[in-house]
Design a protein that fits this description.
Keywords: ATP-binding, Nucleotide-binding, Repeat, Transport
Bound molecules: adenosine-5'-triphosphate
CATH topology of the largest domain: Rossmann fold
Number of domains: 3
Protein name: Sugar ABC transporter ATP-binding protein
GO molecular function, one term: ATP binding
Distance between the termini: 17 Å
CATH class of the largest domain: Alpha Beta
Helix content: 25-40%
Number of strands: 20
Domain ABC transporter: 12-246, 246-489
Shape: globular
Organism: Herbiconiux moechotypicola
CATH architecture of the largest domain: 3-Layer(aba) Sandwich
CATH superfamily of the largest domain: P-loop containing nucleotide triphosphate hydrolases
Number of helices: 17
Strand order of the largest sheet: 6-7-8-3-9-10
Largest sheet: 6 strands, mixed
């Protein structure tokens, strides 16, 4: 990809790019150039201008000043979304813009202008889905029935079928994804980059960015304040630019009391009864594997060495044994691994317990009323299908299942507030704090530094077989980000 002069050719470029909305300067004289096949992370606080830059690139927002180039040529005026898409620039949002009632096949070719025969279009669609490893996505399935990760893949394949994908813009694509889906998306991104597609990846999840990007650009107040290869990044500067300076909650009080979970060598992690302790690491990183091993989900990997709970060894070959001991686990991918789609909200909370606790229908109804109150569950009645509730309220049901019918001896949570709205986050944190105060040790694994900093009494940054402790203070989030950056080799730069 190196030109004869020794400089990379340009795929996408902006010069003197400014966008103003009335008196708001969203972008201020931006100079940026992206090479073919580059994967660039675009970071910044809320309101920094990230979405505006993507919207300019897709033609959704007009420039106030400046120019935009594709493969060295100025984009012809007027720059409209239709034209930009035709030139090979596509955008994937957190919630893909697909027609939920139409089939996968119909969505892939909607408004494509492709007049070839239906059978040849079906063959190409099947081949394109298979090529990205999505053999499980049926062409005739209604898109609305697919989990979010698969809908994003359909959106991506739709962009690919339009012709050569020159630039792919990703706007917080993993905000509501589980770790397995994030891994699939990152693999796809790497494959597209190898085929020459330039990728601009907006995320507030720094671990996702360092997992897959080779360069990071940080925006602040509409200007570029950092532009650096991921390798050799100044972690102190970056973590400082990214972590909002928070005031410590004056009312924060740890409820730690008595012995809880201890993980001996090599990790040296502890989580006392009544404590909420965070494990922070990269997307799909070792912090999630620790939870799975503790729960007996990774029988091949064996138990976590030297794990004890209240002094007794902790080692399970299957989740049923963990549950029998009072160890409960809430997975990151609530739709795939947690909730049971066709069932009512009430059954989603109580079904696993009816047999175990010999619980009658009446007790379940009473318990469900308590769950609604504890988690402030909003939506239809408990007899309604779980699908009728919003994402945050579905997550509250899953947490209720593993915390209320029987209080756990140890609660393991993977990204418990990911992809839920701000109000639900507050409700979930409050309920979990109450559980900890009643004496349960709570271990939270996440790749979101703000999730850890918003709910944990202490944390560890987990990389490989090391865990570095981080105390709760006003620099907690910044410290999490910095320690992770300093200890993580960038996979794609290798
Ligand atoms: N359509 C619009 N009309 C008026 N102001 C806007 C509009 N779009 C964005 N802005 C303003 O422009 C600035 C940049 O916003 P932008 O959405 O690009 O930031 P961002 O970095 O994407 O933030 P976030 O992470 O919150 O999405 C903000 O001050 C925002 O309020």
């Amino acid at each position: 990809m190196i030109s004869p002069e020794g400089t990379s050719p340009e795929r996408l470029g902006f010069s003197g790019l400014s966008v103003r909305f009335g008196s708001t300067v969203a972008l201020d004289a931006i100079e940026l150039s992206f090479a073919p096949g580059e994967i660039v992370g675009l970071l910044g606080h809320n309101g920094a201008g990230k979405s505006t830059l993507l919207n300019v690139a897709t033609g959704a927002v007009p420039r106030t000043e400046g120019s935009m180039r594709l493969d060295g040529d100025e984009l012809p005026e007027p720059v409209t979304p239709g034209r930009v898409a035709g030139l090979g620039i596509a955008v994937i949002h957190q919630e893909p813009a697909l027609a939920p009632n139409l089939s996968v096949f119909d969505n892939l070719y909607l408004a494509s202008g492709d007049t070839s025969s239906r059978s040849s279009r079906r063959a190409r669609a099947r081949a394109a889905l298979d090529a990205v490893g999505a053999r499980g996505i049926g062409l005739d399935s209604p898109v609305g029935m697919l989990p979010l990760g698969n809908r994003q893949i359909v959106d991506l394949v739709r962009a690919q079928l339009r012709g050569h994908l020159k630039v792919l813009l990703l706007d917080e694509p993993t905000a509501a994804l589980g770790e397995a889906e994030t891994r699939v998306l990152h693999r796809l991104i790497r494959e597209l980059s190898e085929q020459g597609t330039t990728i601009v990846y907006v995320s507030h999840r720094l671990p996702d960015i360092i997992d897959v990007c080779r360069r990071v650009v940080v925006l602040q107040g509409g200007a570029v304040v950092m532009d650096s290869p991921v390798e050799g990044l100044d972690s102190r500067d970056l973590s400082h630019a990214l972590a909002p300076q928070v005031d410590l909650e004056a009312s924060w009080e740890s409820t730690a009391a008595g012995p809880g979970l201890e993980l001996g060598s090599p990790f040296g992690i502890s989580c006392r009864a009544g404590e909420i302790v965070g494990l922070y690491g990269i997307a799909a990183g070792p912090q999630f594997r620790i939870l799975e091993q503790l729960y007996g989900l990774r029988s091949g990997a064996g138990p976590v060495p030297e794990a004890t709970l209240a002094g007794s060894p902790l080692s399970f070959s299957a989740p049923a044994a963990a549950i029998a001991r009072g160890v409960h686990y809430v997975p990151a991918d609530r739709e795939r691994d947690g909730l049971i789609a066709g069932m009512s909200a009430l059954d989603n909370v109580y079904l696993p317990w009816r047999g175990r606790l010999r619980m009658g229908a009446r007790a379940a109804h009473q318990g469900y009323a308590e769950a609604r109150e504890t988690y402030n569950i909003l939506g239809p009645s408990g007899d309604a299908a779980i699908a009728a509730f919003s994402g945050g309220n579905r997550q509250k049901h899953l947490l209720a299942r593993w915390t209320l019918p029987r209080r756990p001896e140890l609660l393991l949570l993977a990204q418990p507030t990911q992809g839920v709205d701000v109000g639900a986050k507050v409700d979930i944190r409050r309920a979990l704090r109450g559980l900890a105060a009643a004496g349960t040790p709570v271990l939270v694994a996440s790749s979101e530094s703000d999730e850890i900093a918003s709910m944990c009494d202490r944390a560890y940054v987990v990389t490989g077989d090391r865990a570095v402790p981080v105390e709760r203070d006003e620099h907690m989030e910044e410290n999490l980000l910095r320690i992770l950056l300093e200890s993580t080799p960038n996979e794609s730069a290798a």
